[in-house]
Amino acid sequence: QIRGRPVDMTLLGASGPAGLAVLPEEGSCLSHGELGAEVGALAAKFPPPGLLFCLCHNDLPTLLCYLACLDRGVVPLLLPGGIDKARLAGLLEAYRPNYVFHKRDDLAGISAQTILHCGEYGLYRTGDDTRHALHPDLALLLTTSGSTGSRKLVRISRRNLLANADSIIDYLGIEAGERAITTLPIHYSYGLSVINSHLRAGAALLLSDRSIMERQLWAQIQRDGATSLAGVPYTYDMLLKLGIERLKMSAMRTFTQAGGRLAPERIRRVAESCGARGIRFFTMYGQTEATARIAYLPWQETLARAGSIGRPIPGGALWLEDPQGRRIAQAGCTGELLYSGPNVCLGYATSHHDLALGDQNQGILRTGDLAIIDDYGYFTLVGRASRFVKIFGNRIALDEVESLLHEQGLGAAVTGTDERLDVHLEGPLPEHDLQTRLAATLGINPSAIAVRVLPGLPRLESGKIDYASLAGFSSPCNVDAH
């Protein structure tokens, strides 16, 4: 028996079947009606519902697989196409999927039997006949944000997907004539939210798997009339280097940013460049556990409130709690940020046994972020509850140290233990004695600070800093590690 199908075509065609849905970088475009027909045809060839690993690229076959899974009742785990084989092996062992969808020339040997071909891709039966007990509300699995080796997954329902898409459509004002360029991976919750919201609004997607630094991407943006672009902080660092005012994007009307903290001075620079071109710039905040979005700052207030995450998205609520679980109402006081809304995920999974679990969160998410609220009801993040070390009895917020360095114009990532603070710098060392000055600011001995210089900070595919790969740093101070 096929599990329920309430998500299937509800993500498609609000503009009617003739409305444009997909424009690949190469190949024919598809209307919403044609996309729906392609999805239906592929879903009809899918095997009975089960668990599927989809190794994603920003292309039409991946999009069709994702939508066909929703249509057929198959639960997909979206993974990067270039996933490390050891990590994939760990996930295969923990979750024992029935099927894998990937490019036929990749990862030979992980699949046993070909079920069908879809362009360069194939759908394969893994040979594992485990009959997974899948909860009827479960629609999608995503990896936890920033995870590099963890087997923890986020369990997302149909209701989560639709509620978040509707909220995004509301506060961004997405209309059927919009065209979003896919500058973020589909397996990343932020990138997926762009796809869900635009398809549900009857808008169009310009499919691209290219970097923001590639000329071909900007040629596509101009040629196909992209109206919106989504990016993480690294994206906007690159856009500032390229010069927003010089880029050819005559139809562009909206930039959005999430996926981590963008320094207020850079927010202002982007907002000023966008304002000069008539482009709205939204800064936003979210987590995979909330199916992407939690809060946004109205674009009209970006310059005045740069650095604030703004207010909760439509249909959601935000508040602060102290360590004893009491609500904090006073402006300027720090507490853990909590969110409630219909987009809060069902919970986590660490193996296939957890896929039968129901809604453990009950619509409430403890974000793990520390924040303050101002007199106007706007929230500002001040750090992560878990991003603290205690050196010589001094409690140090690693995020605040990063902010101090960013204010000095330094590209930096900070990790550490209760014995030492590790500062990873992008580019050359500053002329001043960074260790001594930072130690004086933090009230610790300079010997407890190690500085490492890198040609570039390691980043995940989402553009976020890969803190896991930095955490093992144990070199002596001021080593130029090229």
Tell me what you see in this structure:
With about 475 residues, this protein is α/β, with parallel strands linked by helices. About 25% of the residues lie in helices and about 25% in strands. Helix 4 packs across helix 5. It is globular and about 65 Å long. It starts with 19 loop residues before the first strand and ends with a strand.
How are the elements arranged and paired?
Layout: E1 20-24, E2 30-31, H1 32-45, E3 51-56, H2 60-72, E4 75-80, H3 85-95, E5 99-103, E6 113-118, E7 121-125, E8 138-143, E9 153-157, H4 158-172, E10 179-181, H5 189-200, E11 204-207, H6 215-223, E12 228-231, H7 233-242, E13 254-257, H8 264-276, E14 280-285, E15 295-297, E16 311-312, E17 317-321, E18 327-328, E19 335-340, E20 347-349, E21 364-373, E22 379-384, E23 388-391, E24 394-397, H9 398-407, E25 411-416, E26 421-426, H10 434-442, E27 449-454, H11 467-470, E28 479-480
Parallel strand pairs: 1-11, 3-4, 3-5, 10-11, 10-12, 12-13, 13-14, 26-27, 27-28
Antiparallel strand pairs: 1-2, 5-7, 6-7, 8-9, 9-20, 14-15, 15-16, 17-18, 17-19, 19-21, 21-22, 23-24, 25-26
Mean pLDDT: 88
Q: How would you describe the oligomerization state of the chains in this entry?
A: single chain
- Total count of helical runs of at least 4 residues: 11
Distance, first to last CA:
57 Å
Rg, please?
23 Å
Largest sheet: 9 strands, mixed
- SSE-based structural type: alpha/beta
Strand order of the largest sheet: 2-1-11-10-12-13-14-15-16
How would you describe the shape? Answer: globular
Helix share of residues?
Answer: 10-25%
Low-confidence stretches: 1-9, 473-482
The overall strand count is 28
User: Strand portion, in percent?
Assistant: 25-35%
